User: Fold this.
Amino acid sequence: MNHKSLPDLSDEEIKTEVMKLHQTIFEKYGYEMKYIRPPKGEYSERTLAVTKNLGYTNVMWSLAYDDWDENKQGRCDYGKKKVLDNIHPGAVILLHATSKDNSEILGEVIKEIKNMGYEFKRIEEFTQNS
Assistant:
């Protein structure tokens, strides 16, 4: 809910953070969360166990860049290059919605990735084929 580092929280605090987010997402979008990306990519065996016990599958990214930093916007070419140079089979791309650059480059990046022969799938499609 507040993008706190999960290893810094108690089990109860993790449950509160995650379940408040779960409730908010469900109320706003009617979507039942099943997956979680640990904020900042910070996790421990304990936090993985706590979120698993809450019914979540932890999903990490394989490709990200510093797009979240509001002081580092206006680098559309950099963002495109970062994503396109690092795309690979099975890539999970982390792009933050707060990035103005991402909103500008997303359509072009998706088109280019598809032109490279890749396709986009929902996480469920990957887990079903595993």
In short: Strands lie at 35-36, 57-58, 63-64, 93-94.
